[in-house]
Amino acid sequence: MRRKTRQIHVGNVAIGGDAPIAVQSMTTTYTRDVESTVAQIHRLQDVGCEIVRVAVPEMEDALVIGEIKKRISIPLVADIHYNPELGLEAIRQGVDKVRINPGNLLLGRKSMEKIVLAAKERGVAMRIGVNSGSIDALDKVAQMQRVQVRLRDDGTLERSDPAEARRIERENLAERMVTRALEYISWCEELDYHEIDVSLKSSTVLTAVEAYRRFSQRSDYPIHLGITEAGTLVTGSVKSALGLGLLLAEGIGDTLRVSLSAEPEEEIPVAFEILRSLELRNRGVTFVSCPSCGRVEIDVISVANEVEKRLSKVQTPIQVAVMGCVVNGPGESRDADVGLAGGKGKGVIFRKGQVVKTVPEDQFLDAVLKEVASLLPAAEASVVYPEGGIKEVAGTHRTRDEGMNLPILPRA
Ligand code: SF4
Prior knowledge:
Blueprint: E1 8-10, E2 13-15, E3 22-26, H1 34-46, E4 51-55, H2 59-62, H3 65-70, E5 76-80, H4 84-92, E6 97-100, H5 108-122, E7 125-131, H6 140-147, E8 149-151, E9 157-159, H7 162-190, E10 196-201, H8 205-218, E11 224-225, H9 233-249, E12 255-256, H10 267-277, E13 285-289, H11 300-310, E14 318-323, H12 329-335, E15 338-342, E16 346-351, E17 354-360, H13 364-374, H14 378-384, E18 396-399, E19 403-407
Helix pairs in contact: 4-5, 6-7, 7-8, 8-9, 9-10, 11-13, 13-14
Bound molecules: iron/sulfur cluster.
């Protein structure tokens, strides 16, 4: 059961309540470079990003918010640290939401109240973002528990259990993050402002999970999920899938970002994959492919990667399978909307459980994408399967009898 939260609006996107869990990202361009920023936002929109955040480190960045807003069609969030004037200017420029960490605003509560009043007047939402990095270092008790060594009467040393000490540290830190967030919320409520969501991020998965769990038991404001500074494409995706997945499976979370040290466009498919896997969103392609093994006689890895890449912009829910051999291939392919089950240098194409035809390796891409396109709305179909069909081929020829890695002959 999804946790019941109140609903807020960020531009035309609802967050919380019964709204779908929204996927966000953040640009990596210098915001004042309007052309590059708008181009990156358009690329993010193309792959399904629903809310985008931009950094606003200086006044030049705040002053172009209005221009950026005019040229994009998803809600825009301004990321503000230290200087409240940047938040006030972003709000004047028409931003849809400001993200602040009240703990690092100059003049603290006084600055936050100025931003809250401006946001309230203009109907702008606010994310209160508490990061574990901005919470004081370990308190004294936790520090002592971490390194405690006691001399027993018999002269031997007794050391504290490191795992237990880490658990206590984690719980202390999470509790301090939640206490801070609730305090900041109370400042907003005193000004009768409620368009708030909250993030409690940490680069340590278990700390973030602990903080979000605790907050969700004590507040009904919507929650933005994220594991901050999670790492590169692989490490960040794994940490995010684990941390966000645990919370989402418990019904916690109304919007999320997968933070990666990668192009922001790479964050969106990972986020949707997490949501699809938990059956919380069904947008886009559910992709099934086998890892291949010593039984395989097609280059399933290359074909699967190429098919997935070519379907990355599809938003219509559809299941596609690319399988290497007869062991699991026909079953998975039959269950998918479109499937390819490989055999000896050939593949059987399935559509909605029925065999359509058998094609040689150099026609795999054409055959799979043609069938997928036939199930999509016209606008998406023309991108997936352009007029004239797919001329390219994917992969190398594999066969146990003749050796492997022979190039596939180009299509006539
Ligand atoms: S489907 Fe066939 S090729 Fe793929 S992993 Fe399974 S047994 Fe191996």
